[in-house]
């Protein structure tokens, strides 16, 4: 089990980052909150979960151990694989996901691309009462600097929000429109994870 990675961030794209660990470039599929803390050329740390398939080994990256733990718990529900679990954590924070399941808020769950009404009902049925309390940490991972706010230089958030939405299955046109819709919020925060979730909520209501 690879619990976490620390190394220089060699590249960052729509939902992925490449971390140079001892001269080996490790590609990691990341949640928006994890991705917002990684800056090309700087040292970064992500909690990780390795998913082993017959044809592939895939590393998934998270901002903290709580995201990682919930990612693994979500996959205990039938029909929820790692990609869908990652999408759920892209749309909702861990606390809002736990709340949606505990209160049987299927509408919140259907905001995730790939989850319909029946799928949301199944997830609630199978996971209600089974999601553990949040994993408490000091907000940082071993070997990392202070986690920080996950902010980006002014204006840099837009490209990442658009890329993240496209990576989740929305068209480029819809992604651009949603990014424009949250531009006012960006005047108060440039946290990519917050802005991406806000854009996804707007698209889900459209």
UniProtKB/TrEMBL annotation:
It comes from the Bacteria. Pfam families: HHH_5 (PF14520), RuvA_C (PF07499), RuvA_N (PF01330). Residues 72-91, 107-126 form the Helix-hairpin-helix DNA-binding motif class domain. It is found in: Cytoplasm. Keywords: ATP-binding, Cytoplasm, DNA damage, DNA recombination, DNA repair, DNA-binding, Helicase, Hydrolase, Nucleotide-binding. One of its GO terms (biological process) is DNA recombination. Residues 136-148 are annotated as: Flexible linker. InterPro entries: DNA_helicase_Holl-junc_RuvA_I, Hlx-hairpin-Hlx_DNA-bd_motif, NA-bd_OB-fold, RuvA, RuvA_2-like, RuvA_C, RuvA_C_sf. One of its GO terms (molecular function) is four-way junction helicase activity. Residues 136-156 are annotated as: Disordered. GO terms for cellular component: cytoplasm; Holliday junction helicase complex; Holliday junction resolvase complex. The RuvA-RuvB-RuvC complex processes Holliday junction (HJ) DNA during genetic recombination and DNA repair, while the RuvA-RuvB complex plays an important role in the rescue of blocked DNA replication forks via replication fork reversal (RFR). RuvA specifically binds to HJ cruciform DNA, conferring on it an open structure. The RuvB hexamer acts as an ATP-dependent pump, pulling dsDNA into and through the RuvAB complex. HJ branch migration allows RuvC to scan DNA until it finds its consensus sequence, where it cleaves and resolves the cruciform DNA. Homotetramer. Forms an RuvA(8)-RuvB(12)-Holliday junction (HJ) complex. HJ DNA is sandwiched between 2 RuvA tetramers; dsDNA enters through RuvA and exits via RuvB. An RuvB hexamer assembles on each DNA strand where it exits the tetramer. Each RuvB hexamer is contacted by two RuvA subunits (via domain III) on 2 adjacent RuvB subunits; this complex drives branch migration. In the full resolvosome a probable DNA-RuvA(4)-RuvB(12)-RuvC(2) complex forms which resolves the HJ. This is Holliday junction branch migration complex subunit RuvA.
């Amino acid at each position: 089990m690879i619990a976490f990675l620390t190394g220089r961030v060699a590249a960052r794209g729509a939902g992925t980052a490449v971390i140079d660990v001892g001269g080996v470039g490790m590609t990691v599929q990341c949640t928006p909150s994890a991705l917002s803390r990684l800056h090309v050329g700087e040292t970064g740390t992500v909690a990780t979960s390795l998913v082993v398939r017959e044809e592939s080994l895939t590393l998934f990256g998270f901002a903290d151990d709580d995201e990682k733990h919930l990612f693994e718990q979500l996959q205990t529900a039938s029909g929820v694989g790692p990609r869908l679990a990652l999408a759920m954590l892209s749309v909702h924070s861990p606390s809002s996901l736990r709340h949606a399941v505990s209160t049987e808020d299927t509408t919140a769950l259907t905001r995730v691309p790939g989850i319909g009404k029946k799928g949301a009902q199944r997830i609630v049925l199978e996971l209600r009462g089974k999601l553990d309390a949040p994993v408490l940490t000091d907000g940082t991972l071993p070997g990392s600097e202070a986690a920080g706010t996950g902010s980006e230089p002014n204006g840099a958030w837009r490209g990442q929000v658009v890329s993240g939405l496209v990576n989740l299955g929305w068209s480029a046109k819809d992604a651009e429109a949603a990014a424009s819709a949250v531009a006012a919020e960006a005047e108060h925060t440039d946290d990519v994870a917050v802005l991406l979730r806000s854009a996804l909520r707007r698209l889900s209501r459209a």
